[in-house]
Amino acid sequence: MGLSADTIPPQLGNLSFLVSLDFSYNFFGGPLSEQQSWLGLLTKLKYLSLRNNSFTGFIPSSLSNLTNLRVLDFSFNYLQGYIPLELGRLHNLQFLAIENNRLSGNIPSAIFNMSTLITIGFTENELSGGLPSDMCSKLPLLRHIHLSENKLRGEIPTSLSECSLLQTVLLSFNTFRGRIPREIGNLKFLRILYLWSNNLNGVIPSEIGNLQNLAILGIEGNQFSGTIPLTIFNISSLQRLLLHHNQLSGNLPKHIGNLTKLKHMEIAYNNLTGSLPREIGKNFQLDTLLLNFDSFTGFIPLELFNMSNLRSLDLTDNSLSGGLPTNLDHGLPFIEELYLALNYLSGSIPDSIANCSKLRILDLSKNNFTGFVPHFLGNLRILEFLNLYGNNLRSESTSSELSFITSLTNCRSLNSLAISDNPLDGILPASIGNLSTSLQRFTAYNCKIKGIIPTEIGNLSNLVKFSLHENELYGNIPPTVNHLQKLQGLSLHDNYMRGSIPEILCDLNNLFYLLLSQNKFVGPIPECLGNITSLRYISLNSNMLSSSIPSSVWGLKDLLELDLSSNSLTGFLPPDVGNLVSATLINLSLNQLSESIPSTIGRLVSLTNLSLANNHLDGSIPESMGSMISLEVVDLSNNNLSGSIPKSLETLQHLDYLNTLEHDESEKAIELNHEDASEQEKKEMDVMIEDILVVDHVVDLNVDLKASIEVGIAIGTVIRETWRTSSQEDNQISFHKVSHPEDNDSD
Fold it and tell me: Can you give the pTM of this predicted structure?
């Protein structure tokens, strides 16, 4: 139990001879305030530290009495309020650190008048305002200024160069704007410059090249443009170069080879082009090289694969081509992370990669690699992440099983395996159940996998995502799937699986999405499915399911998408459908639902896509649908609905598609209502129809619908029916374009 501030005896104030008071790294707590006036009595104090405790309250202004103080450190507490102006009276103070608190307001100008200061530290507070334009005019001894992670704004003062002894400048995670002042190049003792994550722009000043003692240059996360100044590559002392997440362009110059002390370089997320210079291989001390999400082209230079200290290499999402060297292990003996995804690399995966014994992460996804998925990957005993998604890899033809999976059972730390979008053309082996119990993610969709899902899959007790959709699987969902208690995503759609949807799925209490569409499942939807309150996506469409929709499904108030279309479901829509208040898509089309649409459907204010088409629904369209303010697509066609379209639908500003008619009644609806209309109304309708028929796919429904209501017919629905029919061949209706939450193996 931590002692409170009140338990620090005020009698300490009687120790007038005290020179040093250090309460750091304890569990003291409670509020500081002016009641701790005894602190102001210790006038001979030179060292005062309350660092790393749990003090709250405000900084006592009585500290200004400690005029002999050299060190004041209140960092890592919970202090709030303003920095007292009175601290400016501490004319002997050299070290001022009140970092990692909750201070607010401006930094008092008096702080910048304390000519003895060597260190100013206010990192990670909530300070605002700008820095004074003359901030360094009275700080001749200042060596360290730490102001990162605040709310400071304005421009970086050009007078910063007047603090000529500065060694560390930390201004990251603020909202500074404008350019880096060129005068910063005069700080010849500067070793660390961090300006990360501000709103700085313009070009990087070439004067930075004058900082010949600079070890760390971190200006990432800004809006710098132009090329990287060549002068930067003359800073022979540079160890960390961080330029990522800017708008830099041009080539990476061959002068990069001059930085022989460089250990960490990140120039990712820019617009760099051209080939990677061979000279990069001269940076033999480099352990981290991140050039991902740029636009480099050409081959990866062999010299890059001979950087023996390299531990992390990321070239993701460039336009690099060519193959990998056969002796990869000799040049990169310490490589731990190798990211080469989203390029145009080709050839086979070299055997030598199996000898990179420290490799933990291997991402070769979205390239043009060919040949077999190598068995030797199982030699990478500490491998944690393997992504081969989106290549042209096959499984060895000596067996119908995907035997490489058996070899991967040696990787006992494997937590993610992605092999999707490869023509593997084989059967899942029973050894899949012997993969690492750490495995959380297994994705193998669109791989021409045949056969059944082995029951041994139930051994993978930590599995979170399991995706085998778009294959040629058949058989039942294995009964052992209920052992996967951590499973959040199950995707088996677009296979040939059959049997009933087992009730054991209801044991998966963490399931986020269940995607079983485009199979041959029969029988009822399990009643218990609605007990999985974590479900957000249910897609069971295009099966042979029968019986009624379980009442429990309507209790999933957090469900986002429900697609049960193209089955043989019967029954009616209950009033409880209005409980799906979070849903954005409901598709129940092509079933055998009957009776009327309940008025409670109007509660679905988040719904954008609704299809009840091709059922046996009757009655009128509920007036309450005018409350469904997010609706964009509504298809109620091919039912037995009657009456007029509610006038309330006029208010639906986002509605783009509305279809309520039978396939063969569009022309009849026009003819009958056109005949009953007045001459003026006929002219308006003729003009509208003529205009609509020449528009390809895009119509302003709000205009059409209002006009149709005025003349007593839903002319907008007729027009939309025409649009729908003309676009069926290329599946343009929104219901066919909804993306599943699992369709991504690049993360």
Answer: 0.87
